[in-house]
């Protein structure tokens, strides 16, 4: 892997570590004993309801580099947000996923879409002997996964080692106003970006310092959730800062029911943005 030698480099690690301290806290949700299982189920339902819009738009952006003979490595498949639409554009995907709940939903979603070119590996990517994958894939992609990494630079090295052509990062960017309003109402603190999902700029800095020419594109995607799913969505990030007990859950519910949250066919509709970054690997 070629990396250019620069006299001056931007120190991104301090900010990365401090931001991860907030983002990687397990939500303190106590109003529902089945919260985390339900959250995984909700996410799978939401992506299917949108016909995998997030993954479809990300895959469309990559059309210029994708080939139907590509062998792809996907790090962190989740329930198939990207896996399902991407599988229709490439020869095969090897997907690494640790969560048994996510694998269960992924298997169901693949079967539902009659997709047979995806191999699922239950493993933590951080523990994988990635040396055996040296130059094994045409594309290595990581979506929604950056904040899971202690060392994002090591992730990028591993991705490049496994790829012989391209690497791609896909990451949501920015939160909707609902998330910010709920945070301020529940915590009585000013929202200053405590749980923004943006991690792409850290990767961009590293890659540019390495000398990679990174292509960047953004897209907008819509989500639809019912009342209970929207409450769980809010609890998932508020719980990183306060205990979401029955009283807090009720505050979230009252806001959603009474205050300016428009419904469409009984569903809460929102819009977010995501970034797709891709670059050619230098050997």
Brief description of this entry?
The chain is α/β, with parallel strands linked by helices. The chain is built from ten helices and eight strands.
Describe this structure in words.
With 283 residues, this protein is an alpha/beta fold. It has a single domain, classed as 3-Layer(aba) Sandwich (Rossmann fold). 39% of the residues lie in helices and 22% in strands. It has ten helices and eight strands. Strands 1, 2, 3, 4, 5, 6, 7 and 8 form an eight-stranded mixed beta sheet that branches. β1, α4 and β2 form a beta-alpha-beta unit. The chain is globular and about 55 Å long. It starts with 12 loop residues before the first helix and ends with a strand.
Which features would summarize this protein structure in a list?
Rossmann fold, 283 residues
């Amino acid at each position: 892997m070629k990396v250019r030698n620069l006299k001056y480099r931007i120190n991104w690690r301090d900010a990365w570590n401090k931001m991860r301290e907030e983002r990687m806290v397990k939500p303190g949700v106590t109003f529902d004993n089945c919260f985390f299982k339900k959250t995984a189920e909700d996410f799978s339902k939401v992506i299917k309801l949108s016909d995998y819009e997030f993954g479809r738009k990300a895959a469309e952006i990559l059309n210029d580099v994708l080939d139907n003979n590509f062998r792809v490595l996907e790090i962190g498949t989740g329930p198939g947000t990207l896996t399902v639409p991407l599988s229709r554009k490439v020869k095969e995907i090897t997907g690494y996923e640790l969560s048994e709940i996510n694998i269960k939903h992924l298997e169901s979603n693949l079967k539902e879409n009659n997709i047979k070119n995806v191999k699922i590996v239950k493993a933590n990517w951080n523990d994988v002997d990635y040396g055996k994958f040296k130059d094994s894939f045409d594309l290595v992609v990581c979506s929604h996964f950056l904040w899971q990494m202690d060392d994002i630079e090591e992730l990028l090295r591993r991705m490049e080692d496994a790829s012989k052509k391209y690497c791609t990062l896909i990451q949501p960017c920015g939160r909707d106003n609902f998330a910010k309003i709920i945070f301020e109402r529940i915590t009585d603190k000013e929202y200053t970006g405590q749980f923004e999902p943006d991690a792409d700029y850290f990767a961009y800095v590293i890659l540019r310092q390495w000398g990679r020419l990174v292509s960047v594109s953004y897209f907008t995607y819509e989500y639809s959730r019912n009342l209970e799913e929207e409450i769980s969505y809010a609890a998932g990030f508020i719980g990183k800062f306060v205990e979401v007990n029955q009283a807090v859950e009720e505050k979230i519910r009252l806001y959603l029911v009474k205050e300016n949250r428009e419904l469409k066919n009984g569903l809460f509709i929102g819009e977010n943005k995501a970034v797709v970054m891709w670059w050619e690997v230098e050997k």
